[in-house]
Amino acid sequence: MKISRELKVGFIFVAAVAVFIWGFNFLKGTDLLSGKRVLYAVYEKVDGLQKANNVMINGLKIGQVSDLRFIPGTSKILAEFYIKSSIEIPIDSEAKIYSTDLLGGKAVEIIMGASTNYVVSEDTLTSSMESSLRDQVNEQVEPLKRKAIALMRSVDSVMTVIQSIFNENTRHNLTSTVENIRNTLRNLENASSNIDTIIGDEKNKINKIMSNLESITRNLENNNENINVILSNFAALSDSLASAEIPQTFRDAKLAINNLKELSDKINRGEGTIGKLFTNDSLYFHLEKSTSELNKLLEDIRLNPKRYVKFSLF
To answer: Which SS3 state, helix, strand or coil, does residue 8 take?
Structure first.
């Protein structure tokens, strides 16, 4: 049977179109010759997810996003996935949109569930959305931002307080204080230099003093036995004093002082013979009178001795 040229050309054109369609889809990641399943997920937003983005499980590509469209009458987005892998996906698995790079690339990660029932073609998975890089950065930066704002407010308050404290008078006082400190340090330096000079001049005397101290120490060491004897004597004296009836002696002395005080009080009050002698003036007057009369008698005897003394030779 002879095939016409037109039929051959038509057959070649159809084959070329089929190869083109297959190659185009193959380059997009869709293998038209392999079996595949269609799964769905509903999202509030997709944050840049596009058709032909990969569908992954544990980092391995198992399919791609085939379509994204709004659900009629709502603002929700229905995502359609082609799954070409034969892996069994539990019915409670989750289709999570995540960022693949810093440039905003997106993909869908199938988070495997624990159910023993598995999805079939055209089942709908639970959906979720990973925080975008910007949201993650904002979550990390926001606390730092709040702390930075609080810190800036604190710094502003501190600067205000510092400005109010360090007014012109305070600055002048600080300048004067610094100048005084500088003068004090200069005086300390001069005093240190003077001390060094004095020490240098008195070095010989210091050496002599140290020699004398060393000699004293040596003498103490040589007379250690004598010192021990002296300390023993002091200890014996202390024991003797401790054994003596010193408290009784003090009590007797106190009793004697009390008696003497009592006697003095009686004398002051004029009690007894001695008290009367001290307090009665009549004895003084009598004694004075007797002394005066005795003086007169002695004077008369001196002037007229014959009146009182008679001499006889025979």
So the answer is: helix
**Structure confidence by residue, pLDDT tens digits, 121-174:** 889 999 988 876 566 666 677 788 788 888 888 887 777 777 766 666 777 777
- List, in order, residues 6 or more apart from 50 with CB less than 8 Å away: 65, 68, 106
- Measured distance CA(243)–CA(296) in Å, rounded: 67
Judged by DSSP in three states, 126 sits in strand
CATH tag for 36-130 (out of 2.40.30, 1.10.260, 3.30.9, 3.30.460): 2.40.30
Give the model confidence (pLDDT) of 199-252 as tens digits.
776 777 777 888 888 888 888 888 888 888 888 887 777 776 666 666 777 777
Where do the domains of the chain lie?
Answer: 1-33, 36-130, 202-236, 245-292
Residue 55 has pLDDT above 60, yes or no: yes
CB proximity list for 283: less than 8 A, separation 6 or greater = 276, 277
- Rounded Cα distance between 229 and 53, Å, is 109
Strand ranges for 54-169 from DSSP E: 54-57, 60-70, 77-83, 94-99, 106-111, 124-129
Q: b/e map of 31-47 (b: 16 or more CB within 10 Å)? A: eeeeebbebebebeebb
How many angstroms separate the CA atoms of 81 and 67, rounded? 7
Q: 75: helix, coil or strand? A: coil
Give the whole-angstrom CA distance, residue 280 versus residue 271. Answer: 11
pLDDT value for 245: 64
Rounded to an integer, what is the distance from CA 125 to the centroid of its chain?
Answer: 56
Q: Is-above-0.85 flag for pTM?
A: no
Q: Average the pLDDT over 33-42 and give the result.
A: 78
Instruction: Give CA–CA dist 54/100, Å, rounded.
Output: 10
Task: Please give the C-alpha separations between residue 275 and each of 27, 257, 266, 267, 309, in angstroms, as whole numbers.
Answer: 149, 19, 7, 4, 42
